[in-house]
Amino acid sequence: MTFLEKCIGVLAILVFMLITGVAKAEDKTITPQEFVTNVAEVPGKLVTFIGSEVEKTKAYQTKVWSEAKNKWPWTMFKGKENATQD
């Protein structure tokens, strides 16, 4: 058996596994009431998500800017007595 024949065999097995291993979706129906409830919850979830992202961004920026204040070249211009000043 040559290398090419082995590769074709492995490829055929992989294709077979991919075709037969596809996940089957469950047949779940959603009621109109569930749909309305889900749509009504979207604005609140969106506001909560954006608020949490803003807070994470502020915390990250505060950390990075405080670290950057004490690094060269800013300390070179401020002088040693101001290097640790907030």
The proportion of strand residues reads under 5%
Which H/E pattern describes the elements?
HHH
By DSSP (H or I, 4+ residues per run), the number of helices equals 3
Q: Give a short account of the largest sheet.
A: none
In angstroms, what separates the terminal alpha carbons?
73 Å
pLDDT < 50 runs, ≥5 residues: none
DSSP summary, beta strand count? 0
Helix % is: over 70%
Shape: flat
Rg is 29 Å
Residue-averaged pLDDT: 81
Classify the secondary structure makeup into a structural class: mainly alpha
Please give a quick description of this structure.
It contains 3 helices and no strands.
Written description of the protein model:
This protein has three helices and no strands. It has a domain at about 45-85. It is mainly α and about 90 residues long.
Keywords:
single chain, 86 residues, mainly alpha, 3 helices
Which SSEs are present, and which pair or pack?
Elements: H1 3-20, H2 32-69, H3 74-78
